[in-house]
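Cont'd.
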Amino acid sequence: MKRLIAAALLLWAILPLSAQTVRLRLATTTSTQDSGLLPVLNAPFEKMTGITVDVIAVGTGAAITLGVKGDVDVLLVHDRKAEDKFVADGYGVNRRDVMHNDFILVGPADDPAGAASAGSAGAAFAKIAAARAAFVSRGDASGTYVKEMDVWGKAGLKPAGTWYKEAGQGMGAVLTMSGDLRAYTLSDRATWLSMKDKLSGLKVVFEGDPFLFNPYGVIAVNPQKYPKAKYMAAMQYIAWVTSVEGQKVIREYSIGGQQLFTPDAINQTP
Amino acid sequence: MRGPFGKALELLFTGDREVWFIAWTSLRISLSSSIIASVPGIALGVLVALRRFRGRRVVLAVLNALMSLPTVVVGLIVYSFISRSGPLGGLGILFTPAAIVVGQAVLGLPVVVSMTASSLSRLDPLFSEALTTLGARPGSILWMSVREARGPVLSSCLAAFGRVVGEVGVAMMLGGNIRGYTRTLTTAIALETSKGDFVLGLALGIILLAVALGVNGVLHSVVRHE
């Protein structure tokens, strides 16, 4: 009897959940999830359509690879060049602008390199390199890393040396490392705002250069390439995040009174 | 600020639904994968232990080496099979709990085979000879050997459970750390750590330890009472 109960319990435990809901796989960057936006943005969509959104939060590079391999149905990423290539290569269709925020240079509160007084992002980076002040780089294929490389390119520099540390980790981990090492790093504003309370000793050193613009796009995986991709659900999702209601959710999402993302899909200022 | 131990107790006893669900997901997935690894694993282990065949030492060495395979590598190999662009892509199991179960079963199998083989080789060789003389069929020799060495065999299954419940590579790669679906205790710890919430990370680690202790305790008591 005891064995029978044990066996029944085991069977119950290992049987998979067999609820037949439609699951839409969304590959996205860590910033949209860690900032807390996605749960808020997806909940009304899930309620309205009955589709469950499975969020796979990785760097933009990894997210696009998942799309190329057909392992997800829709992407929400921030690397315009890679996005355009993804569409041009035939892996993605129906790309739409969704929203933007900006990148900021975060660093020690006393700003040892004096980067705050720089006139542009490139000049701020050049000051850090000249002072050989510690800088933590994402060192991965993320959208933030791509932007960081663009800024170094603008400064006409190729960063190298013991002061320049390639972490190979996500934005949150890199911000934590920067706090511990009293180092500079380039961060998206959303992740910074959601974590800054845990990062004593760091502050926003430089911001506001238009070059640090950080736009996010949404792209469906091409159903002609991957017939099993859930194209209809993906298009419903794209329709939702670019709709008047979806854009309102994005505009109204804030942490500590600060708006994190500015909606872009509908061109009108509120 | 409360320490990680207090935080763990708070999460468990205030009935934090998300944490309970994550713990449950971890337990369910890792139990499934260790059982799936154990059934063929024990049989293969008995075979390796009782049969004398050419290349037996090589097989044992390879099995031991497989135990040190990084979990991320196992994740990558299984990923290349079950990706939509891979040979088993039609199953569509990537980023589901089933994918983690498959990956963890691959991870646990060498542990079960290797440890079962080493524990049975300590059985008196006369045991299986005597059974053969008494006219037992191979199937019942296998069964009786396992019964005789049930303590060590159970230990090998529990070692496999220990390996899979605490691993993060396979669960992250094949499960995708999807909230409310494939998020396990280990991937949740990795996520909270990356977000800088070390206290919550440690608290989840303590819960993971409690789950592992619970499984070990229950299975040991079941075997002792037989």
